[in-house]
Design a protein that fits this description.
It is a single chain. The chain is an alpha/beta fold. The chain is 40% helix and 17% strand. It has ten helices and nine strands. The strands form two sheets. A five-stranded parallel beta sheet has the order 2-3-1-4-5, with helices on both faces. The protein has a four-stranded parallel beta sheet with strand order 7-8-6-9, covered by helices on one side. Helix 3 links the parallel strand 2 and strand 3. Helix 2 crosses helix 7 and helix 5 packs across helix 6. It is globular.
C-alpha cells in the first residue's frame, strides 16, 4: 500500500443548535472511530466512509468526540453517521479516549472501533517512500517510532471491533474491504470474514480465530491435484473425504455459532476466521469455502478471502 496518512489538523464543521425539545427527540448518530498505525491506511479508510455518505472528521482530539456526536444529534438527521480518525500524537491520548468512550457508552451511542494494522517492514517502506519521519520517532529511527506507537496502541487494538491488516493491500484492496463492511444499507447483526492462508507466509495479524487444517493429508503430494486449488471440486472432494474432515467441519461450525451468539451479546459485529494450511492453496481454501457457506446459511453475512492462493 502506497497511501500515507496525513498529519493535518482536525477540521470540524459546526452545526446550528436546535430548540431543546428538538434536540431531545433527535436521533443519536452512529459512530465509527478509525485508528491504528501511522501509515497503515487510516486516511484511505476514512475517505472510503466519506464516499459512502459518512460525515468524517480527521485528527479529532479524543476529548472532543462526545461533542461531535452531540452536534450530529442536533443536525435534524443531516448527520446520521460520523467517522472520526484519531491517532496517538496527543500526550493524553488514552486518558482522553477512555473518558470519551465511557461518556459515549453512558449515552448509549452505537460506536465501533476500526483498527488499521500493518507489519513493520511494510510501514518502513511506506515512510521511506514519502521521505517523511514517523510522528513518534523523535531523534531515533523510523522503526523506533513504529515500536513506540505499537506499544501505545496495544490496548486499543485489543478493544477494536474490526482489525484490518494492510501489509499486503494496495489502496483499492483496502477500499474494497471497507466497502464490504460498511456499504450495506442495513447493518447486519454480525459480519464474518473467512480467510484462507498459508502458515509458511505467516499468520494473519487481523485474525480473531485461527484454524489449522494441517492435520489432513496435503493434496500437494497428489500429482493430479497439485496444479489446482481448494476451489476445484476434485480437490475439495479429496480434502473432505479424509477421516475427520467432515466431522471437524460440522463441529467447528457449531462452535462458531456458539461464539457468534456471544459476540452478538457483547456487541461485537465483526469476526475474522483465519483457516490455514501449509501453502494456503488446497486444504485451507477448500475448508474456507465450506465454512463460509455454512455461516451464510446460518444467517451470518460472510466474505471469503484467499490471502495466499496463487503465491506459489
Amino acid at each position: 500500500m502506497s497511501e500515507h496518512d496525513g498529519d493535518g489538523a482536525a477540521e470540524v464543521s459546526t452545526a446550528t443548535p436546535t430548540e431543546p425539545g428538538e434536540a431531545a427527540e433527535a436521533a443519536i448518530p452512529e459512530l465509527v472511530i478509525i485508528s491504528g498505525m501511522s501509515g497503515a491506511g487510516r486516511s484511505t479508510a476514512a475517505k472510503c466512509l466519506e464516499d459512502l455518505g459518512w460525515f468524517v472528521v480527521d485528527n479529532l482530539p479524543p476529548a472532543l468526540i462526545p461533542t461531535m456526536v452531540e452536534l450530529g444529534a442536533r443536525s435534524q438527521g443531516n448527520v446520521a453517521r460520523i467517522a472520526v480518525v484519531v491517532d496517538v500524537r496527543g500526550r493524553r491520548f488514552f486518558d482522553n479516549l477512555r473518558e470519551s468512550l465511557a461518556d459515549l457508552d453512558a449515552k448509549q451511542v452505537t460506536r465501533r472501533i476500526v483498527f488499521l494494522e500493518s507489519s513493520d517492514d511494510a510501514l518502513v517502506r511506506r515512510f521511506e517512500s514519502v521521505r517523511r519521519p514517523h510522528p513518534l520517532q523523535g531523534d531515533g529511527r523510523i522503526v523506533d517510532g513504529i515500536a513506540a506507537e505499537r506499544d501505545l496502541l496495544r490496548e486499543l487494538r485489543g478493544d477494536a471491533d474490526l482489525v484490518i491488516d494492510t501489509s499486503s493491500l494496495n489502496v483499492h484492496e483496502l477500499r474494497a474491504k471497507m466497502d464490504a463492511q460498511f456499504a450495506g444499507e442495513e447493518e447486519p447483526e454480525l459480519r464474518a470474514t473467512v480467510m484462507s492462508f498459508g502458515f509458511k507466509y505467516g499468520l494473519p495479524v487481523d485474525a480473531d480465530l485461527v484454524v489449522d487444517m494441517r492435520f489432513l493429508p496435503n493434496p500437494h503430494w497428489v500429482p493430479e491435484l497439485r496444479p489446482f486449488t481448494g476451489r476445484n471440486e476434485e480437490v475439495s472432494n479429496y480434502v473432505f473425504n479424509q477421516p475427520g474432515a467432515k466431522e471437524f467441519l460440522d463441529q467447528y461450525t457449531e462452535l462458531l455459532q456458539l461464539i457468534a451468539a456471544g459476540y452478538r451479546r457483547e456487541g461485537k459485529r465483526y469476526v475474522t476466521v483465519a483457516v490455514g494450511c501449509t501453502g494456503g492453496k488446497h486444504r485451507s481454501v477448500a475448508t474456507s469455502e465450506k465454512l463460509a457457506a455454512r455461516l451464510s446459511a446460518a444467517g451470518v453475512e460472510t466474505v471469503v478471502v484467499h490471502r495466499d492462493m496463487g503465491r506459489e
